[in-house]
Structure formats: C-alpha cells, structure tokens
Specification:
The protein has 273 residues and is α/β, with parallel strands linked by helices. It is built from 9 helices and 12 strands. It has a 5-stranded mixed sheet, with helices on both faces. Strand 1, helix 1 and strand 2 form a beta-alpha-beta unit. The longest helix has 17 residues.
C-alpha cells in the first residue's frame, strides 16, 4: 500500500496513524508543489514544466527559499515516475490518495490522476469533504486539512477509502485539462471537487486591506491576511504579490525588499495642495 498526501504536515500524522493500525502499513509519499497557483498550460511536457519552474523562481526570489527550485528538493514529476514504476512492477500494489476539502489537495489530486489511469481498480481516494471528526478536546469539527485530524481518527477515515471509478478517470482529467488550457494563475475550490480560476492578482485587493498608514513588516501583513481572510494561499505567493505591488509603486517601503521580515510597508500619504 502506498499513501499519497499533499502537505508535509500530513506525512507525520499519517505515519502516526500507521503506527496505531498495521493494516495501513505502507510508504507515505508527498506531492510537494502547490498546483492551486501558477501556470498550468502544457503541464505534462517540457515547455510547461519549465514555465512552472520559472514561475516559482520568480515567486521565491530574494526570500528565505530563494534557489529552492533548482536544488531538486521538489520534483513531483520524478516522484510520479517512481510511483508509476512501482505500480507496474508490483501488480498487487495499491495507491491510496488522501485529500481534504481544500484547493491545494484537490489540485494535487487532479495533477496526479494523469499518471494513475492505467492502474484503475488499484487506486483509491479518501476525500474527507464535509465529514465530521473529533478533535483532541473531544469536540466535533470539520477539518480543512488532513493534519488537523488526530492520528487515532484516521482509523475511522480509512473506512472511507473507495476505488476511483472508471468514470472519474475519464471525466476528472478532462476537467483538469480545461483548467490547464485556460492558463490562469489562481484556483479556488467551490465545493466537492469543483475548481474555478482567477487571475494572478486575485488576492491583491484583500491583501491591500491590511496595509495601514503605519509601518508594518511584510510578515505581519501576511499573517493578518492568513488569519482573517476567507480565501488564503501560501505565504510565499502573498509575499510575491506584495513585491509586485511595490514594484508598481503603490505603497511606501523601507528596508531591503527580500525575506518578509526584512522590509516594512505602509500606505502612501497624499499631500494636499
């Protein structure tokens, strides 16, 4: 059994669940890219793969993760190739894809499905959408992310595993390719597995609301956005959007524009005549 997750924190909690239930025993593999943002056009060929790498080079430039694109730490295509090889060599092997109801996981599921079609009947989905769980305090909650679920609750979640149907293997990749060909920059989850797309500047209007007449570090602005906004995304993407707006001379800035703790931003005061 091979388990697929889409967040680093999910790896740890699923491994803890496996320790509690040996029937879940198997390797836990993470798909690392965030396919909810960035270009998707020609996603499975060299041109599109390089365009996506270039997008992340630009997003991460000057920050704490500058250079990460080229250190080979994130290579989902290699991960997928190794997964396909394992499934072909071992006809009894199965793959379980774990996804919670968030755009990051759902986009990862769609991306991976492209490689899994030949294994129909051996690929299972555990999509934890709108399902209640018990948290550490004993209260019912609806998780947005797998790692919010206590390890012991995964033992109940495993009962939800079902085969990805032949119909899903036909319909879902078609829907994903439509999104890829729209060539927009931001994806949002409307419900179930339905994704809609927006332009790269989708988060800008909301992000601006947290920029005040007082100097604030970029890290504080981003933290406020992440804690208060309905639609959120990764902090590196938000940092890139802030830098993009600064490049357009929309706000005052002081300090070196690099990592999010290196510079401060405030609204530009208008001088009355």
């Amino acid at each position: 059994m091979i388990h697929i997750v889409f967040n680093e924190a999910d790896v740890k909690v699923l491994q803890q669940a496996i320790e509690l239930d040996e029937t879940l025993a198997g390797e836990v593999i993470q798909i690392k890219d965030d396919y909810a943002v960035g270009p998707l056009l020609n996603l499975y060929v060299g041109e599109g793969i390089e365009a996506r790498k270039q997008f992340w080079r630009e997003v991460l430039a000057g920050g704490d993760l500058d250079g990460r694109v080229d250190d080979n730490e994130v290579d989902d295509y290699k991960t997928a190739a190794e997964l396909v090889g394992t499934m072909r060599r071992n006809p009894e092997e199965t793959t379980w894809i774990w996804a919670a109801q968030n755009k990051h996981d759902v986009c990862g599921y769609y991306w991976l499905l492209y490689y899994m079609k030949e294994f129909q009947g051996r690929v299972y989905i555990l999509y934890l959408n709108n399902l209640p769980f018990i948290n550490e305090k004993g209260n019912i909650f609806y998780p947005n992310w797998l790692h919010e679920i206590p390890a012991k609750e995964f033992l109940k979640a495993k009962k939800l595993a079902r085969e990805i149907t032949l119909s899903e293997f036909e319909v879902d990749p078609d829907e994903w390719m439509k999104l890829c060909n729209e060539n927009k920059g931001v994806r949002l989850l409307e419900g179930g597995k339905k994704l809609v797309q927006q332009d790269y500047d989708f988060y800008d209007a909301e992000l601006k609301k947290f920029i005040t007449p007082d100097w604030q570090k970029a890290s504080k602005i981003i933290h406020q956005f992440l804690s208060k906004s309905k639609h959120t995304t990764g902090d590196m993407y938000l940092l890139w959007r802030l830098k993009t707006m600064l490049a357009q001379d929309m706000f005052d800035v002081q300090g070196k524009i690099g990592a999010m703790k290196d510079f401060e931003i405030k609204t530009r005061q208008t001088v009355s005549a």
